[in-house]
Design brief:
heterodimer; A: 263 residues; alpha/beta; six-stranded mixed β-sheet; three-stranded antiparallel β-sheet; 10 helices; 9 strands; 43% helix; 24% strand; B: 784 residues; mainly alpha; four-stranded mixed β-sheet; 32 helices; 4 strands; 68% helix; elongated
């Protein structure tokens, strides 16, 4: 469903050119969860934004469902559902009003939207607060509303940008169940996270991203074989050390630079 | 149904969401409901203090007048009371011309024909010490003090006594015999007579002593104290009149007798209030729009809902339109609430009568003012959205809006100035035009021509602001991604690009328009000679219209060939281009002339003065060498305007659809010509914009600005050449008068030739644009 090839995106920052994404290629199939892993500033969010058509790559191509976001942005956008850490809710709208609003944004016919809402209410246990104003919700409830929002137009592709950040164990568990549900309903899921333990639990395949470059892609077993390490965390540390040594740069200093660009 | 197809039901629901969000927010409700409930009663309290204290002063039955004991002991108080009682007497009452005029000017509710008997009665009080304090703390309304200098030139007591006014107290026995009888033997009768004479002499001595100068102290700007002063002034005026009359003898009425007729003058007070009310309404409408505008744009970002919005397939201009409708609605609700609160306050406080001569606004007036507020809010809401769309947070939006609100206040306060007149030029100033038009509506003195200018201008501003807002709102996400800010708009990029971005164009425009407007109306005024003035105007054009975009392009590292469409074309191409543009250049002016004529009729600017000016100017031009005239009026605009409008502006719009790009560039082209002279030539907009459309089509079809430049030069040059050889042509009866229709044959020929030219253009330029594009090596492949 998602195919990217050799994406490059640069930003101007303080008179310097920073390569946020540098030659990234990967693909995500329907019914598959692909984990885009990397530390803060690795280029995860930039990649997601390019896939969504919010940013135009300096070079390289993206296809979602066989279409380029550049050529047919309307259709491509309606194929994608997006849930991000920074997502907010409308404090003065009720949960129902907000979800129906998003159905309208995606031009979902009213009756279909109502039906879908019923399904999501059940799936994500929204009954208790479906008619409450969003400003009264707890963090966990909010997160569930945001997850539901991403599905109001029933997109075949889901992009999740650090969906568990700031959530407790129960909240995270809801997200995992949600991802499992997405996978079961045959959606292509692109998950970006820096929580490697979580990724290990839910992802089918991984892309290890560092300093804008994709270092490894493959299943856990494939990467284990390639790196000789058992856990993602160990692999990551080893991998980062190696690149830093190759490039001769202090990793902390530069990660900060990237952070600023990303923020 | 695709999210890109427009459905009214869906758009309605999108608007409803924005409206719900705004109206449920208690901060909106505060401006919407509480402010009008508070502000008008408060305002009326303040105004009542000023206005109605005048009225209450008039209603007073007595005024307290303090006198020093010395004054009180003299006949002076009797004089005062006599004078006062004389006022009630029609025959003796003097007419106070000055006060009548003053009354009709300043003292609104009080009729100038106030009967003198309505004057309050003076209540006399002796004040020993601390006279000034008693006055300042309001225990007494007026103080009368004796001035020490006495009048020397008055007649001696005896003579005066004989001529005392009848009602003066010392005059009670004035009909008795003359005091100058010779003295005889002392009898009791004599004694009594002597005594009487002594008393009389003493009395006349007292009267004499009481005459002279007095000082009256009163509290300035205090209506009651001023009223007391009026009482004293009038009483003594009556007293003096009576005295003079009695000196001249009964048969003489008065030396001069005036009959004053009050003339109703526009009341300054009411005038100011009639302006202040719309100003307050406008300001409140603004206040009503501010909060929702910030909340629905910057607020979306702050809440983290913006990204989810812009990744949806609904185009950002639809989102913005929904937000715009919500802001306009809330702002209108605020306006309505204010209008209602104001109407009630005016009615309840009785000020309506004072200002409008009736208890409250008429329904028609309220309707008109409301229509005006709708117009205003369509403009102001768009402006607010344009500004707040830039902001990343509430705070930032507020920081942007404070200067805007202050800027908006300045013209608002300016419009309060009594001298300001609602001319056509003033009608183009946003906000001022609305306030002044509202004032005219309220005082029922609308000049419809000027009103139309104000309405049209405000509409144009609204559309412009909305277009800018729509673009800014759309660019939001990418700007966030690249940390774009205002600073980025001003920094020099590291890499070259092919076309200017729309915001660069907008900023160039924003600098160019006012500069050009000022320069082209001020600089030529520095010289008397027409040729010098024209040369300066041409220089201004080259410097600004050509120089500025070139400078910007250099600074932004734009590719000159693509930005300015400098493709030279091949000989084969020119074989097709040249005939097309020459035919068009020779023919389209006929259509432009007719459109111009109809625009003039529509706007009503065909008047003898204007035509006279045009004819005079045309005559002056004939005395200059044709080459020079053509350089100024044909070559200069052709070169400068083509570089700017068909190059820079059209280039910046290359991401829009072709039709939109043509429309936007032509509208800008038309607007520029409306603003070029110090007289606002609204009627030039339509013909110029039409020529702009043709020029844009030529540029887009050929991929080059050069053919358009030739067309432009021929189009302009032809009219000035015709003017130059006017006398020759007139002999052959081939001259068109300014401000009249073209002969039908000319028009038919013109339209026919234009059609031919257009066909030549469309047929002869197939694939030229692609060829032009291919001829230029792309500077960068990612011109976002």
């Amino acid at each position: 469903m998602i195919v990217t090839h050799d994406l490059v995106k640069q930003f101007q920052w303080g008179g310097r050119t920073v390569k946020a994404v540098n030659g990234i290629s990967f693909d995500v199939q329907a019914g598959e969860v692909f984990g885009l892993l990397g530390p803060n500033g690795a280029g995860k969010t930039t990649t997601l934004r390019i896939v969504m058509g919010l940013l135009r790559p300096d070079s390289g191509t993206v296809e979602v469902g066989g279409l380029s976001p550049d050529a047919d942005s309307g259709t491509v956008r309606s194929l994608i559902g997006m849930v991000s850490t920074n997502d907010g809710v409308y404090p003065w709208l009720s949960v129902r009003e907000m979800l129906m609003y998003f159905a309208d944004l995606y031009a979902v016919p009213l009756n279909v939207a109502r039906q879908r809402l019923e399904g999501l209410v059940e799936k994500l246990q929204l009954e208790r607060f479906i008619d409450q104003r969003c400003c009264t919700l707890s963090t966990g409830q909010r997160q569930r509303v945001i997850l539901a929002r991403g599905l109001m137009h029933d997109p075949p592709v889901m992009l999740l940008d650090e969906p568990t950040r700031g959530l407790d164990v129960v909240g995270s568990q809801t997200v995992f169940e949600f991802i499992a549900h997405l996978k079961a309903s045959g959606k292509a899921v692109l998950l970006s996270t820096h929580r490697l333990d979580e990724a290990e639990r839910v992802c089918d395949r991984f892309g290890l991203l560092h300093r804008g470059q994709m270092l490894y892609t493959g299943t856990l077993a494939q990467i284990q074989q390639a790196t000789g390490k058992q856990h993602l965390t160990d692999m990551f540390l080893a991998m980062m050390k190696q690149t830093e040594m190759e490039l001769g740069i202090d990793p902390h200093y530069d990660a900060q630079q990237h952070d600023e660009v990303r923020a | 149904m695709s999210a890109r197809t427009f459905s009214f039901a869906r758009f309605g629901r999108l608007c409803m969401k924005e409206l719900r969000e705004s109206l449920r927010d208690r901060r909106t409700v505060i401006t919407l409901v509480l402010m009008p409930l508070l502000i008008y009663p408060l305002l009326s309290l303040v105004l009542n203090r000023v206005l109605l204290s005048n009225v209450s002063a008039k209603a007073r039955q007595t005024v307290t007048i303090g006198m020093s004991s010395e004054v009180q002991g003299s006949p002076f108080p009797e004089f005062l009371l006599t004078g006062w009682s004389l006022l009630a007497d029609k025959d003796h009452s003097p007419v106070f011309l000055e006060s009548v005029l003053k009354a009709s000017k300043n003292e609104l509710a009080i009729s100038a024909e106030e009967p003198e008997s309505a004057l309050p009665q003076p209540d006399l009080l002796v004040i020993g010490e601390n006279i000034s304090e008693e006055l300042t703390n309001g225990n007494i309304d007026l103080v009368i003090l004796r001035k020490l200098r006495k009048r020397e030139q008055l007649p001696p007591p005896a003579q005066l006594q004989a001529n005392q006014p009848q009602s003066a107290p010392s005059q009670t026995d004035a009909n008795e015999k003359s005091p100058d009888e010779p003295m005889q033997s002392v009898t009791p009768e004599d004694l009594a007579r002597k005594e009487r004479r002594r008393v009389r002499r003493e009395q006349s001595q007292e009267v004499f002593n009481a005459l002279g100068d007095y000082e009256v102290q009163y509290r300035m700007n205090d209506p009651v104290s001023e009223r007391a002063l009026q009482v004293v002034e009038r009483a003594f005026s009556a007293f003096n009149n009576a005295t003079v009359r009695s000196m001249l003898g009964e048969k003489h009425d008065a030396a001069i007798r005036l009959v004053a007729t009050p003339v109703s003058l526009p009341s300054n007070y009411a005038d100011m209030l009639a302006t202040m009310i719309p100003l307050v309404l406008v300001l409140m409408t603004m206040a009503g729009a501010v909060y929702p505008a910030i909340d629905l744009t910057a607020g979306e970002r702050e809440r983290g809902t913006m990204e989810a919005l812009v990744v949806s397939p609904t185009p950002s201009y639809v989102l913005l339109l929904a937000k715009y409708s919500a802001v306009v609605t809330v702002s209108l609700l605020t306006a309505l609430a204010n209008l209602l609160a104001m109407t009630i306050t005016l009615w309840a406080s009785g000020m309506g009568r004072v200002i409008f001569g009736q208890a409250t606004l008429s329904t028609a007036m309220v309707g008109e003012v409301l229509a005006l507020l709708i117009l205003f809010t369509t403009f102001f809401s768009a402006l607010l959205l344009a500004i707040t769309s830039f902001a990343r947070s509430f705070k930032e939006a507020q920081a942007y809006l404070i200067p805007v609100m202050l800027l908006a206040l300045t013209p608002g306060v300016l419009s309060l100035l009594p001298g300001i007149r609602f001319t056509n030029l003033v009608a183009t100033i946003p906000l001022v035009n609305i306030v002044l038009l509202a004032r005219q509506l309220l005082t029922d003195s609308v000049e419809w021509n000027t009103a139309l200018v104000a309405v049209i201008c405000t509409g144009i501003y609204a559309a412009t602001a909305l277009a800018v807002a729509s673009r800014l709102f759309g660019s939001d996400a990418s700007m966030q991604g690249s940390q774009g800010s205002w600073r980025d708009l001003l920094s020099r990029p590291a890499e070259a690009s092919d076309y200017p971005k729309p915001d660069q164009m907008a900023m160039t425009m924003a600098v160019l328009f006012p500069l050009y407007f000022v320069a082209s109306s001020v600089l030529p005024g520095t010289s008397e000679a027409l040729s010098t003035r024209l040369a300066i105007a041409a220089l201004v054009s080259f410097t600004l219209i050509l120089g500025l975009p070139v400078l910007v392009s250099w600074f932004r590292r734009l590719n000159f060939t693509t930005t300015f469409r400098l493709y030279a074309g091949t000989i084969q191409q020119w074989m097709m281009w040249l005939p097309a543009v020459v035919v068009l250049g020779l023919s389209t002016w006929t259509i432009a002339h007719e459109v111009f004529y109809y625009s003039q009729m529509l706007i009503g600017t065909i008047d003898a003065n204007r035509l006279g000016d045009v004819a005079k100017f045309a005559n002056q031009l004939r005395e200059l060498p044709l080459v020079f005239v053509l350089f100024v009026f044909a070559i200069t605009p052709a070169v400068c305007e083509e570089f700017f409008f068909r190059g820079f502006v059209l280039g910046s719009l290359h991401r829009l659809s072709t039709v939109m790009a043509i429309v936007v560039s032509s509208v800008l082209f038309g607007l520029m010509h409306v603003l070029t002279s110090n007289v606002l030539m609204v009627e030039r907009f339509l013909p110029t914009a039409l020529i702009g459309v043709l020029l844009a089509v030529i540029a887009l079809r050929t991929g080059s600005i050069w053919p358009g430049m030739i067309f432009h030069a021929i189009h302009n040059g032809l009219q000035f050449t015709l003017n130059h050889y006017r006398d020759v042509l007139a002999k052959w009866d081939y001259m068109v008068e300014e401000g009249s229709h073209l002969p039908a044959t000319w028009l038919i020929a013109g339209v026919g030739a234009t059609a031919v030219g257009l066909s030549l253009l469309m047929l002869g330029t197939k694939g030229d644009a692609t060829q032009a594009a291919a001829s230029v090596p792309a500077t960068s492949d990612a011109a976002i």
